[in-house]
Amino acid sequence: MFSSWWISSTLDCDYENRTLSLEHILLISRSDKINLKLKIKFVRIFLWLFFGILFTILLPKPAISAERIYLLYGPFKFSLSVEALEIYATEGRITSEFAFYANRFDEPTLLQLRQMLQKRYYLNQVTVYRYRTSDGASHNRGNS
Predict the structure, then answer these.
(1) Cα angle 71-77-79, degrees, rounded to a multiple of 5
(2) How far are the Cα atoms of 5, 59, 73, 92, 102 from residue 110, in angstroms, in the given order?
């Protein structure tokens, strides 16, 4: 990193004074200081990027959830917000949005629906994907 000229000139200068100071040993030319600052900035940027990408990859990510559920029945497409179903499942209260669907069921069926909504289901992602892309699912969705 240091040229032989820098070492010899420093040693000549120090030989006359018969002292070696830390300032002389660590003496760096102006261009070397600029290069060193650029290298330090590069290393800092690299470390920020490296750890940012590392944490992005390793930290758990929240699941993306639906805001609405779409029900297809032949050529008809109905939608219902997840919030309306959640209110029915937790509080048992039927919102005006859910009332359109609730009026079509009798009381025992609504109770079964509420129990099903309160239950936790463990689904394999591969099975759900296969169902969504199978022929039976596309016929059920109305996509013949």
Answers:
(1) 55
(2) 91, 40, 20, 10, 7
Against a cut of 0.90, is the pTM above it? no
pLDDT of residue 52: 86
Query: Per this entry, what is the length of the chain?
Result: 144
Calculated CA dihedral for residues 100, 105, 106, 109, nearest 10 degrees: -130
Q: Domain map of the chain by residue range?
A: 4-58, 68-141
C-alpha 142: how far from chain center: 33
Distance CA 55, CA 71 (A): 39
Could you read off the pLDDT of 114-136 as tens digits, one per residue?
Answer: 999 999 888 888 888 888 787 65
Strand locations in the chain (E) = 68-73, 76-81
Q: What six digits make up the tokens of 131?
A: 């169902």
Q: CB under 8 Å to 87, separation ≥6 — which residues?
A: 93, 95, 98
Plot region of 58 (φ>0 → left; ψ -120 to 50 → alpha; else → beta): alpha
CA dihedral of residues 70, 72, 77, 82 (deg, nearest 10): -20
